[in-house]
Design goal:
alpha/beta, 8 strands, TIM Barrel
Length: about 260
């Protein structure tokens, strides 16, 4: 049993075969798939996917790369759906300092407001932290929340330790499968196993064996095998530990 803690199953890339993709994941042993939104416009699509496919669980939030077209009333809509549905988490939220054309102040505003929504609802958060780990940590210290996951983690060991202190798990997926990804692989091998959860970020961040093609959640067992080999563990032990970690940080997965 494995948990994909980050998969955009509602994405247009799956419109032609979403049912088959979900079935393949279940057949591969992926028992739960966390489906985060990226903007208000896809709250409904995420909700629909999670109603239709067993094991899919929704999170709602506004992604930092989508804040350019967000409006403040979208925060009201997020607050309403959080109160009404009490979802698994608030996400995908955070900061992105990789894209060149961006409004850092706008990103920070939407991130901090969404942290307040998560804090007030006692919900964990799913974090986007690309090239912005220290800035994200600074906001988390200012607005404490009920833990969560730093998705696609690619920071330093010191930064990882800071997330762990704040009650966060770190998401590892396709990037870890590349032999040249030395820093990520070192982290995957040496961090406390209790801090690690698995993810695909499908349809994005394809693993090494699917470069240039669409990523899918049924790739998670192979990703777990890479983690097991890096740590010198059995696949079963890695699956059990990372599933327990996901359930600890996202309590609604237990239901």
């Amino acid at each position: 049993m494995l948990v994909d803690t980050h998969c955009h199953l509602d994405a247009a890339e799956f419109d032609g075969d979403r049912e088959a993709v979900a079935a393949a994941a279940a057949q591969a042993g992926v028992s739960s798939i966390v489906v985060p939104s990226v903007e208000r416009a896809n709250f409904g699509a995420v909700a629909s996917v999670c109603r239709e496919y067993v094991g899919c669980v929704a999170a709602y939030g506004i992604h930092p790369m989508y804040v350019e077209r967000a409006h403040e009333e979208d925060l009201d809509a997020l607050r309403d759906i959080v109160i009404r549905e009490h979802p698994l988490a608030v996400g995908e939220i955070g900061l992105d300092r990789f894209i060149e054309r961006r409004d850092d102040e706008r990103q920070t505003f939407y991130f901090s407001e969404q942290l307040k929504i998560a804090r007030d609802a006692s919900l964990p958060v799913l974090l986007h932290v690309r090239r912005a780990v220290d800035q994200v940590l600074a906001q988390l210290r200012r607005i404490p929340v009920a833990g969560g996951i730093a998705h696609a983690f690619n920071g330093s060991r010191q930064q990882a330790d800071e997330f762990i202190k704040l009650g966060f798990k770190l998401g590892f997926g396709g990037a870890m499968t590349f032999p040249r990804a030395l820093r990520i692989r070192e982290l995957a091998a040496t961090l406390p196993l209790s801090a690690i959860v698995l993810e695909t970020d499908a349809p994005d961040i394809a693993p090494e064996w699917k470069v240039g093609s669409r990523n899918t959640p049924d790739q998670l067992p192979h990703i777990a095998e890479i983690l097991a080999s890096l740590r010198g563990m059995s696949l079963q032990d890695v699956a059990e530990a990372t599933t327990a970690n996901a359930m600890a940080v996202l309590p609604q997965l237990k239901h």
